[in-house]
Amino acid sequence: MHLKITLIILLNLLIINESFARDAALESCDSALLKRQFSQAINIAEKHPAQAEFWLCKGRAQSALNQSADAEQSFKKAIALKPQGLDLISAYMLLGNVQQESRHTTAALDSYQQALKLSEQQNMRRYVRIAHNLIGEALFENGQYSESLQAFQAGEKLALNDDERADSYVHEALTFQQMQQLDQAIEYQLKGVMMLRKSAEPQQYAEASLVLAKLFVAKKDFVSADKTYQRLMEYAQENGGSFYEAKTAIEWAEAKHLQNDAAGAERLLAQAESISQKIQDPELTAMLEKARAANP
Questions:
Q1: Residue 226 DSSP symbol
Q2: Which candidate among 52, 115, 177, 205 keeps its CA 20 to 30 Å from the CA of 233?
Q3: pLDDT of 5
Q4: Per-residue pLDDT at 14
Q5: CA-to-CA distance for 205 and 216, rounded, in angstroms?
């Protein structure tokens, strides 16, 4: 789930922004992480082996370098040093992430449950919500969709703003889709899209809208799908989103083919090709090649 990437980035930023009494060395380690200077972050952290916070910094750098086994050991060493409050909660969340990346779902769920328990004990509502979502994503990836949905719904109840509610709705919609409950998937994806339109980055809104349109297509509700694509096309044009204007055209063309509207599909692909020639985006080029190959 690409949504998990967003959640992990959010978690890393929260750890940096909400930690207090940070010394200069730890700030340097975190700064290196933000600048993607991962080897430098590891070098700084290794000079302070007695402090859990540096093991967390080191583990996050190792994780970014895809050194999952090393990152797991770093997070375990951080926990062994018995940090307090946010540092301990973060350690369990980050440990769960690398365990899940290694497909050790049972271990990951145990770590997330520890983070959830600690967050609840300390009344840290934001982290309770994140823990529920991490549990939901691990269960989702393990094919336990009913249990996953329950975790996402628990997180939804703790949402504090439209962005967080939209995030929950989109997670729930994806889970309903996997459970073959298209009506519920559409309902929650639509709610998510409406909130993202108000507050999210244009890219988030666009991607969520494309998912919504595909759900309508899966239900063979082509009228609603066309309206969704049209709305997104206008949004992309008004906000200077050439990439998403073209991507929308490509996916809309596929819906037109399913409606046996070859002429409409061709107009949309021609529109996408014109944009692609101007912006020279490799992803668009690949999408167009795939679209042409599917409907020669």
A1: H
A2: 177
A3: 43
A4: 55
A5: 17
For 221-241, b where at least 16 C-beta lie within 10 A, e where not — what string? eeebbbebbebbbebbeeeeb
Longest dimension (CA), the chain: 68
Spatial contact of 46 and 58, defined as CB atoms under 8 Å apart:
yes
Whole-number Å distance between alpha carbons of 60 and 52:
13
User: Contact at 8 Å (CB) between 19 and 87?
Assistant: yes
pLDDT in tens, 82-97: 998 888 999 999 999 9
pLDDT tens figures, 94-142: 999 999 999 999 999 999 999 999 999 999 999 999 999 999 999 999 9
Separation CA 152–CA 140 (nearest Å): 10
Question: What percent helix, strand, coil does the chain show, rounded to 5?
Answer: 80, 0, 20
Task: Report the Cα 294 to chain-centroid distance in Å.
Answer: 29
Cα–Cα distance measured from residue 271 to residue 276, given in angstroms and rounded to the nearest whole number:
9
**Spatial distance between the Cα atoms of 256 and 128, rounded to a whole number of angstroms:** 44
Pairwise CA distance, residues 22 & 59, whole Å:
18
Give 87-149 as a DSSP string.
HHHHHHHHHHHHHHHTT-HHHHHHHHHHHHHHHHHTT-HHHHHHHHHHHHHHHHHTT-HHHHH
Give residue for tokens 């080029």: 285
Using one digit for the tens of pLDDT, what is the confidence trace for 166-224?
A: 999 999 999 999 999 999 999 999 999 999 988 778 898 999 999 999 999 999 999 99
Residue with tokens 């998990």: 4
Least Cα distance to 237 among 223, 227, 248 occurs for: 248
Q: What is the distance between the alpha carbons of residues 254 and 42, in angstroms, rounded to a whole number?
A: 47
Tokens 């990836």, residue?
A: 141
Q: Which of 244, 253, 159 is nearest to 209 (CA)?
A: 244
Could you say which DSSP state residue 117 is in? H
Q: Which two tokens stand for residue 174?
A: 């994806």
